[in-house]
Amino acid sequence: MADAETKAPKFAEKEYDVETMQGSITFGDGTSMDFEVNKLAPEIQKTLALHGLMQKLGDSYAGAKGDFGTAKASVQSVWDQLVEGKWRAAKAAGEAKPRTGELAAAIARVTGKDLVEVQSKVAEADDAKRKAWRALPAIAAAIAEIRAEKAKALAAKSESVAIEL
Fold first, then answer.
1. Whole-prediction pTM value?
2. Of 4, 32, 38, 112, whose CB count within 10 A is highest?
3. Nearest 5°: CA angle at 116, between 115 and 118?
């Protein structure tokens, strides 16, 4: 019987080096495959770049859960950071990327400001500032409304289920 603490190796681990334009995939069984972008035809390199861009932008709204405003704000935020030459949003050491879509939507709703602008400001704020915003009664109420709207929308999409008591 395997020890509960023993973990199976990752199935595959990907790495790349921007300077050499090379990447590798190392599988859990120890085998590795190497790839060199410069060996690809220029048309393939362009297609690969566009595919990667669309994947990165698409990843940004993966947690939007049907909220178009949050999705669009996330895409715009990632695009803006890429235009600024930043691959990843800046964050403090050890700080996980916060989920800010709901907070930004609530602030935009309460203040009447543009969601994209608010999303950017919320993403730049530190944890203490975001916590202070969430503690404001108007923001807390707006978050509750947003959650209720999402729950109602989900319920409307669901098939009706007979409930036996």
1. 0.52
2. 32
3. 60
Name the residue range of residue 108's domain.
Answer: 37-151
Task: Indicate whether 26 belongs to any domain.
Answer: no
Contacts of 42 (CB under 8 A, 6+ apart): none
Residuewise pLDDT in 10s, the chain (165 residues): 445 566 777 898 888 888 888 888 888 888 889 999 999 999 999 999 999 999 999 988 888 888 888 889 889 989 998 998 888 765 544 444 456 778 888 999 999 998 888 888 888 888 888 889 989 999 999 988 988 888 787 777 665 555 566
Phi, then psi, of 32 in degrees rounded to 5: -135, 145
Give the count of domains, the chain.
Answer: 1
